[in-house]
Amino acid sequence: MSFGLSLRSVVIRKNEQNLSTFIMRLLLPKWKKDYEKALEIRNEGLQLSTLNNEELASLYAGNGGTYLYLKDYNNATLCFDKAFELVQEEKFPYDEQFIEVIESYVKANRKEDALKLVESLLQRQSYHKKFRKLEPIREKLLT
């Protein structure tokens, strides 16, 4: 009896994995369309003349994150460029996602730009000490 339950659970798990894989393959194009829709909506927002630089940067960073998720590193970094440019004079807190952003530059074959970004972010230690966490990434980029 125990053997029968074990065999049954293996068959169920295998069927669940196959079903799960099948469902993922069905939904992936829909999810991609959802990301494309999000990009479209944010791009419409970027056309609004009433937004300040911080709001515009947020939209660009959102697009960058979406492109990053879609593994479109070139477009991701172009969006991150615009976002950081818009808030270069602003004080903003450290965010763990900066590491992924920096890595996207490397993946887009923009290692020098990644280094410039890290160095720019490291200068922000004067008001937010957590930016120090980027020092090992700087060292890695220099090698």
Structure description:
By secondary structure, the protein is an all-alpha fold. Helix content is 74%, strand content 0%. The protein has helices spanning 2-46, 53-69, 73-86, 98-107, 111-122, 135-142.
Q: What is the approximate shape? A: globular
- Computed Rg: 21 Å
Main sheet attributes: strand count, strand direction, barrel closure:
none
Topology as a string of helices (H) and strands (E): HHHHHH
Terminal CA distance = 61 Å
Low-confidence stretches: 1-17
In terms of DSSP E residues, the strand content is under 5%
According to DSSP, the number of beta strands is 0
Overall mean pLDDT score?
Answer: 82
Helical segment count: 6
Looking at this protein, list some descriptive labels.
globular; disordered N terminus; 74% helix; single chain; 143 residues
Helices and strands, with pairings:
Layout: H1 2-46, H2 53-69, H3 73-86, H4 98-107, H5 111-122, H6 135-142
Helix pairs in contact: 1-2, 2-3, 3-4, 4-5, 5-6
Question: In a few lines, what is going on in this structure?
Answer:
The chain is 74% helix and 0% strand.
